[in-house]
Amino acid sequence: MTRWDYGHTYVAGVRDLDGLFGDPEPPAALADPDEEVSGILDSLVEATGGDRDGYQSVTRFTVGSNESVTAPIRAMTATARAEDHPVRRLRSNPPLLFSKGAADDHR
User: Nearest 10 degrees: CA dihedral of 86, 69, 6, 3?
Assistant: First the structure.
């Protein structure tokens, strides 16, 4: 598993894959790259020490900030905790010898 750092920008590329019916043609954006795609290719060359040839797909992406990633779940959690819930006082007893556990409503 890879954890991307919050707020950082990354480049990624796929290259030299064989197609089912021979070598696939490069996408038009890679065959005749514009300034943005050229910048991505240059970043990949810098990062890998390779060359610009053979890429079949490239992308650049920025990971959201910690706040932008966690804010929605924190808001949902706050809403759920603020509302009454029928199992709020539920205590579970994990099974020790059996495959099923037990839960009791302790009021």
Answer: 60
